[in-house]
């Protein structure tokens, strides 16, 4: 809940004597930066102050009391839907996504989530603007259906860079891509990954089973050691969840410095 303090006119000496803390407003607002308090100098002509107050209420980016890695990120999950995955393992991947999502504050002015599935083709399951609550995102994840097909990871990275991240590139949130794959791509992954990095997208590579470690490292952002994850079994994805969340927060703090 964002609380705005609107004060009208100056207090009388009698009123001041009734107040224990004269700087109450400074302590009560979530940020003492002048945004969450508004002073109207007199009771006369108060209506002319409605518009500037409404403009404050509509300044979405400033409405966040503090920007953190939990409320100021765009996270896209690029998931391998190739034939080698299988239905059961695909559901484990969806469970991984859901568990990561649960850590973030998803609102229309907070964190945003997108999911894209790829084989030789790409399919946006939902974009950053589709769901504005955590509950709807989680429902959207559970509604995803397994595609099955080949593995063109490089083309998928290019697709996400141009079609998912480009529309939000100039926004205030920091951009992260979590890529999950269980095998080797049939196309070049280095060029598309480099282009994504240059576009300001931080990539985490999550490999399962037969995914080549060299490819995972080539796709991941620097430093490679903290952006590359691997598990031999799909059931091991659960243990990676807290590591991904911590890594996103660590990178977010690095962005802010």
Automatic annotation (TrEMBL):
* Pfam families cross-referenced by the UniProt entry: VWA (PF00092)
Its domain of life?
Answer: Eukaryota
- Please report the stretch or stretches of sequence annotated as the VWFA domain: 74-244
Q: Which InterPro entries match?
A: ECM_Assembly_Org (IPR050525), VWF_A (IPR002035), vWFA_dom_sf (IPR036465)
Identify this protein by name: VWFA domain-containing protein
Which source organism does the UniProt entry give? Micrurus lemniscatus lemniscatus
């Amino acid at each position: 809940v964002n609380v705005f303090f609107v004060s009208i006119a100056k207090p009388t000496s009698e009123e001041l004597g009734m107040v224990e803390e004269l700087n109450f407003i400074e302590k009560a607002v979530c940020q003492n930066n002048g945004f969450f308090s508004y002073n109207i100098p007199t009771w006369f002509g108060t209506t002319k102050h409605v518009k500037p107050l409404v403009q404050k209420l509509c300044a979405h980016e400033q409405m966040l009391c503090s920007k953190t890695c939990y409320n100021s990120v765009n996270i896209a999950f690029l998931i391998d839907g190739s034939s080698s995955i299988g239905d059961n393992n695909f559901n484990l991947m969806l469970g991984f996504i859901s568990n990561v999502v649960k850590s973030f504050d998803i609102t229309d002015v907070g964190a945003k989530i997108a999911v894209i599935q790829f084989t030789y083709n790409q399919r946006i399951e939902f974009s950053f603007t589709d769901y504005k609550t955590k509950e709807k995102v989680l429902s959207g994840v559970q509604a995803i259906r397994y595609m099955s097909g080949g593995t063109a990871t490089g083309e998928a990275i290019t697709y996400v860079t141009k079609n998912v991240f480009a529309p939000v590139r100039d926004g205030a949130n920091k951009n992260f891509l979590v890529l999950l794959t269980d095998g080797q791509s049939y196309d070049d992954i280095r060029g598309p990954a480099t282009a994504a990095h240059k576009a300001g997208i931080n990539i985490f590579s999550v490999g399962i089973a037969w995914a080549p470690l060299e490819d995972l490292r080539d796709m991941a952002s620097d430093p490679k050691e903290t952006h590359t994850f691997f598990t031999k079994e799909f059931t091991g994805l659960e243990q990676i969840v807290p590591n991904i969340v911590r890594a996103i927060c660590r990178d977010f703090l690095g962005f802010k410095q």
